[in-house]
Design goal:
With 149 residues, the chain is mainly α. The protein folds into 2 domains: 68 residues, Leucine-rich Repeat Variant; 77 residues, Leucine-rich Repeat Variant (Alpha Horseshoe). The protein has 9 helices and no strands. It starts with a helix and ends with a helix.
């Protein structure tokens, strides 16, 4: 795809993300924006995330941010992690937690480790394992760093 065609596709997806009344269309648009892996999309996705109400669309935006791998998205994603962790464990959205962990792992920003650390004690084995994978990916020496801290 040449630059002009990619730019047109990007603009089309952004328009859908902000103007469609259909949540499925917005979710697909967010996913498509992420697959384009353009750093310029981080600010657009951040704006969309702040106004979006649909759970599925929010999850797709977080995934898209992970695909783009822009560290500017780290703090925004961490805010969603904090919101989930404030809930009792049985009320936490496990799907969202998986998406958050995977997105933060893809971004690879060490600022996420402090917040992900809480999930190392999760009652859910799959969440605990994915969190350990995220730690290994973001900081391969995390176990040594924890011991010396």
């Amino acid at each position: 795809m040449d630059h002009k065609a990619q730019n047109e596709a990007y603009n089309k997806h952004v328009k859908i993300l902000f103007s469609s009344s259909n949540w499925k269309d917005r979710a697909i648009a967010a996913q498509a924006i992420g697959q384009m892996k353009e750093g310029r999309a981080t600010n657009i996705l951040s704006r969309a995330l702040k106004s979006e109400k649909d759970i599925v669309v929010i999850n797709r935006i977080i995934e898209a941010m992970g695909e783009i791998r822009d560290p500017k998205a780290t703090i925004l994603i961490i805010d969603f992690l904090k919101d989930e962790l404030e809930k009792p464990e049985e009320e936490q959205n496990k799907t969202r937690l998986f998406i958050i962990i995977e997105s933060l792992m893809k971004i690879g920003d060490k600022r996420a480790l402090e917040h992900l650390g809480i999930l190392l004690d999760s009652c859910h084995n799959d969440i605990r394992k994915l969190t350990e994978e995220a730690f290994e990916c973001i900081d391969p020496n995390w176990k040594m760093n924890v011991k010396t801290a």
